[in-house]
Amino acid sequence: MNLLTKTKFFGNFKVSSKLITAFILVSLVTCLVGVVGTNSMKKINTNSLDLYKEAAEETAATSEKLANQSHLLKTEVNKFCRI
């Protein structure tokens, strides 16, 4: 079948059949885009949670170090003031 024959073949359908076929094709493409988008959003969510956990751990460690240094500094200042 060449292109002209295929065009005539599709041209022989009723308008309602053509519209239904087009609607089904558009629906399939829309579903495909939705599935791909949903999967991508799940990956983004997983990656953002991992990133948050890493940042929270680093922040907690840094905060603990700063608290220890602050306590040591206060102790040294108190010793200096007593002298």
Could you write a compact summary of the structure shown?
By secondary structure, this protein is mostly helical. 93% of the residues lie in helices and 0% in strands.
What labels describe this entry?
83 residues, mainly alpha, 2 helices, rod-shaped
How does this structure look, described?
The protein is mainly alpha-helical and 83 residues long. It has one domain. 93% of the residues lie in helices and 0% in strands. It has two helices and no strands. The chain is rod-shaped, with a radius of gyration of 33 Å. It starts with a helix and ends with a helix. Residues 12-56 form the Chemotaxis methyl-accepting receptor HlyB-like 4HB MCP domain. It comes from Clostridium grantii DSM 8605. Keywords: Membrane, Transmembrane, Transmembrane helix. InterPro entries: HlyB_4HB_MCP (IPR024478).
Count, helices: 2
What share of the residues lie within helices? over 70%
- Number of beta strands: 0
The biggest sheet, with number of strands, parallel, antiparallel or mixed sense and barrel status, is: none
From N to C, what is the helix and strand string? Answer: HH
Strand content: under 5%
What characteristic shape results from the CA principal axes? rod-shaped
Unreliable runs: none
- How many separate domains make up the residues? 1
Question: What is the alpha-carbon Rg in Å?
Answer: 33 Å
